[in-house]
Design brief:
Shape: globular
Radius of gyration: 19 Å
Largest sheet: 4 strands, mixed
Number of strands: 11
Distance between the termini: 65 Å
Strand content: 25-35%
Order of helices and strands: EEEHEHEHEEEEEEH
Structural class: alpha+beta
Helix content: 25-40%
Length: 175
């Protein structure tokens, strides 16, 4: 089966994207600039193509664990966190996306210093939230006084606040 999409959907997908389905029900995708997230949404609730990457993280629920990822994304090139999607890329949805957005915003504002540059977007059709974190200019961004770095699909501790202060001191002494 081959589908051609000639009009953008509500998320503004590029015109002319093509999808084809082989016998094993996985989707082969031929496109230039379209997100995998929108492809799986457009096709429906079938097997999804979504995978976690260095710049994409999935969280089925909202817990404080996503804050390490916000620190890591802010300290490097940025990334996206999708809430309401499990680790396998299956859309589970959130019960109250508006309250969830407020919770995410409060957790980031109360826990990350300096405050990172981010946006929240409701994905109402699937009842998910996309948090886009931009790479910051006031590095390092700390969560619980620690800076994090993204390592493939996980986060690792880069430096503690004490180590960061020592590094800055050493650099200023070298000048």
């Amino acid at each position: 089966m081959t589908l051609s999409v000639d009009t953008p959907d509500t998320d503004g997908i590029l015109n002319g994207s093509k999808y084809s389905e082989n016998q094993s029900h996985f989707f082969t995708i031929d496109f230039l600039s379209i997100s995998v997230y929108n492809i799986s949404s457009k096709i429906g609730k079938r097997e999804t193509c979504m995978r976690e990457t260095r710049t994409t993280e999935f969280k089925e629920t909202i817990t404080n664990t996503f804050l390490k990822t916000v620190s890591a994304f802010s300290n490097y090139d940025g990334g996206e966190i999708f809430f309401g999607i499990d680790d396998n890329g299956n859309i589970k949805g959130l019960s109250d996306v508006k309250q969830a957005c407020l919770d995410i915003e409060n957790k980031i504002n109360d826990s990350i210093t300096p405050q990172p540059d981010y946006t929240l977007e409701l994905q109402n059709n699937d009842r998910t939230i996309k948090l886009t974190v931009k790479g910051g200019i006031q590095k390092p961004y700390l969560y619980k006084s620690k800076a994090y770095k993204r390592n493939d699909t996980s986060n690792r501790l880069e430096q503690t606040e004490k180590e960061i202060s020592e590094t800055k001191k050493q650099l200023s002494e070298q000048k």
